[in-house]
Design goal:
Blueprint (H helix, E strand, L loop, with lengths): L2 H8 L2 E3 H11 L4 E4 L6 H9 L5 E4 L3 H15 L3 E5 L3 H4 L2 H9 L4 E7 L16 H4 L3 E6 L6 H15 L2 E7 L6 E3 L21 H13 L3 E5 L7 H11 L3 E3 L14 E4 L6 H9 L2 E5 L6 H4 L6 E6 L13 E4 L2 H13 L10 H22 L7 H11 L5 E4 L3 H9 L7 E3 L10 H11 L5 E6 H7 L3 H6 L4 E7 L4 H8 L16 H7 L3 E5 L5 H13 L4 E6 L11 E6 L2 E6 L15 H6 L9 H8 L4
Parallel strand pairs: 2-3, 2-4, 4-5, 5-7, 6-7, 9-10, 9-12, 10-11, 12-13, 13-14, 15-16, 15-17, 17-18, 18-20, 19-20
Antiparallel strand pairs: 1-8, 21-22
Helix pairs in contact: 2-8, 4-6, 4-17, 9-13, 10-13, 11-14, 14-15, 14-24, 15-22
Protein name: Pyruvate oxidase
InterPro entries: DHS-like_NAD/FAD-binding_dom, POXB-like, Pyruvate_oxidase, THDP-binding, Thiamin_PyroP_enz_cen_dom, Thiamin_PyroP_enz_TPP-bd_dom, TPP-bd_CS, TPP_enzyme_TPP-bd
Family: Belongs to the TPP enzyme family.
Length: 619
């Protein structure tokens, strides 16, 4: 008699794979993304047995499943699960798992393996899987016995939460069928739902930072996602200390877009005033931010640097510290406001630098508003965002793919704390938008969901539009199609190469392809066609069906404010254009900053130096 048979004779038993799924259910997992393969059949049998308690979402490519799990974890804060069978099913998961690792999303990946009776025989699709996942995973184990399967998966969930990362469990296929004792295997408890305690700044630390702000001539706060729900409080602090705010991309929506001293974003996905302020700042305070482009933006000139972060391990990772404060960002803001309220710290009247930044920001916003509201035929991208903003509900969720749509979303998409949105932030994987929309609609079925992608990114994963159809997920899919990898095209504009290389795509009729999948769709080519298209999208999705808009836009470059540079002459700032701009000669070559702005229809834009002169800002 086998061990399993002996155990079964003594009491109630359950297949090991079912016990494993019940562990996941106990942790609140509601659905699992994957694509079946022979080495995963024991788990597939368990998914059928547990289908009333946990839903299998059949994607058409494992990469989509892993990206969806990553997006789901970012949107919900809860562990999410994907799987792949042995061999290519496993390797196809890696892109999505790296996205989860880079953005600190708790994901469990279940990996099929051939039966133990065939391991080490060079069996079909057998290979050593753990080494492949060693770099991406915080926990990487192969199950050694059927009885340990639910235990190892429970441990994987706990490690994914602990480290905010990827946990990998390799499961020999024969183990899942084996009957094991039907006992509770989960360690999940209400304790796991408590928020982790956060560090708090001392009054002395806050006073030190405030003193540095008051001593600086041109201070800014570089705000990250760590501000969380403290955006309104940060606005109050900004006003009372006369210090402008520059945001990292992931902080979009957390600080009100309409605040006059919210200058927007630095670097390439940028606002003009934000890049100009950053390039001239003499004090930068990184508040709950982890800026992946710091090695570019933080190295342009010397400034004093303060870092306020709940993760002390990040101190100095992007710039040497003049002062560091181990503290939750919002707690720091609360303490600073308390010092102002009780009179220990005096408010700062609007400084020349603050006034200049506000005026430059107003000028920039007027330009964006003009671009978004002017008619275009052929269609330009700004008008698409005007329509998205018009039909979006106040708590809509946006899944935005990699490319120009990141820049355009930062500039033109209206977001508030009521919204959720997700991108592949640090790994920047093309093809993220559609999986993210799947995740959003599955986890938030009552909220409106938008998927925004360019044709290059969408064409990598468009087979999974059928997944929206299969599960009747009413997503509004907006494909900005210009037959170009335009984000890369813009980079090549500034390289000394004779012409663009490898970035032009063969155009496709995405609406026709969508209709072939049974998804209603429309193509638009001018701005006057957009309102009807978006009205139809709302009508169809409210009826419970997905809809696709193929927006055929031009391949123009958005105004590249990252090309602006500053130097000091005779005690004054001088604003110029990066000499590498238009290095390949495909664009108009401007001689002045004003001519540069005009070449992007920005005749009304003025250099920051104009506002510096108006307000008397000193270098």
């Amino acid at each position: 008699m086998s061990i399993a048979e002996d155990t079964a004779a003594q009491g109630a038993t359950v297949p090991a794979s079912v016990a494993m799924l019940r562990v996941l259910e106990s942790w609140g997992v509601e659905h699992i993304y994957g694509y079946p393969g022979g080495s995963f059949n024991s788990t597939m049998a368990a998914l059928d047995a547990e289908k009333d308690r946990i839903k299998f979402i059949q994607v058409r490519h494992e990469q989509v499943g892993a990206l969806a799990a990553s997006a789901d974890a970012k949107l919900t804060g809860r562990v999410q699960v994907c799987f792949g069978s042995a061999g290519p099913g496993a390797t196809n998961l890696l892109t999505g798992l790296y996205d989860a690792r880079e953005d600190h999303a708790p994901v469990v990946a279940l990996i099929g393996q051939v039966p133990t009776t065939n391991m080490n025989y060079d069996y079909f699709q057998e290979f050593a899987e753990n080494p492949m996942f060693e770099d991406v995973a915080v926990y990487d184990r192969t199950v050694m016995t059927p009885e340990s399967l639910p235990y190892v998966v429970d441990k994987a969930v706990r490690e994914a939460y602990k480290h905010k990362g990827v946990a990998v469990v390799v499961i020999p296929n024969n183990f899942g069928y084996v009957q094991i004792p039907d006992t509770p295997y989960s360690s999940s408890s209400p304790t796991d739902r408590k928020p982790a305690p956060l560090p708090a700044a001392t009054d002395e630390e806050v006073r030190t930072v405030v003193d540095m702000i008051k001593q600086a001539k041109r201070p800014i706060i570089h705000v990250g996602r760590g501000i969380q729900t403290g955006g309104e409080k940060l606005v109050e602090l900004s006003r009372r200390l006369s210090i402008p705010l520059v945001l990292t991309g992931l902080a979009k929506g957390l600080v009100p877009d309409d605040y006059e001293a919210n200058l927007g974003y630095a670097n390439r996905a940028a606002s003009k005033a934000a890049d100009e302020a950053f390039a001239t700042a003499d004090l930068v305070i990184a508040l709950g931010s982890n800026f992946p482009f710091a090695n570019l933006i933080y190295r342009t000139h010397e400034f004093k640097f303060v870092q306020i972060d709940a993760d002390a391990g990040r101190f100095g990772s992007h710039h040497f510290l003049d002062y560091g404060v181990w503290s939750d960002a919002t707690t720091f803001v609360d303490k600073a406001l308390a010092l102002l309220d009780n009179g220990e710290v005096e408010e700062t009247p609007a400084t020349p630098f603050f006034r200049a930044c506000v005026a430059s920001n107003k000028n920039w916003r007027e330009y964006l508003n003009k671009m978004m509201n002017r008619p275009s035929n052929p269609l330009e991208f700004e008008a698409v965002y005007k329509e998205i903003n018009r039909v979006a509900e106040e708590d809509a969720i946006f899944s935005i793919d990699v490319g120009d749509n990141i820049i355009n979303s930062f500039r033109y998409l209206n977001l508030t704390p009521k919204n959720k949105w997700t991108i592949s932030a640090l790994f920047a994987s093309m093809g993220y938008g559609l999986p993210g929309a799947l995740a959003a609609k599955l986890s938030f079925p009552d909220r409106q969901v938008f998927h925004i992608a360019g044709d290059g990114a969408y064409s990598m994963v468009m087979q999974d539009l059928i997944t929206q159809k299969k599960y009747q997920l009413p997503v509004i899919n907006v494909i900005t199609s210009n037959a170009s990898l335009n984000f890369i095209k813009s980079e090549q504009d500034d390289l000394s190469i004779p012409q663009h290389s490898g970035i032009f795509l063969e155009d496709q009729d995405f609406a026709m392809i969508a209709r072939g999948m049974g998804v209603e769709a429309v193509t638009v080519t001018s701005s006057d066609e957009l309102p009807a298209a978006f009205d139809k999208a709302v009508e169809v999705t409210k009826a419970g069906r997905p809809f696709l808009i193929d927006a055929k836009i031009t391949d123009k470059r958005g105004l590249p404010v990252e090309e602006l540079e500053f130097h000091v002459e005779d005690g004054k700032f001088v604003e110029t254009i990066n000499p590498n701009y238009n290095a390949n000669g495909t664009l108009h070559h401007p001689e002045t900053v004003e001519e540069f702005f005009a070449s992007y229809d920005g005749e009304e834009l003025l250099p920051m130096t104009y506002y510096f002169e108006q307000e008397g800002v000193e270098a």
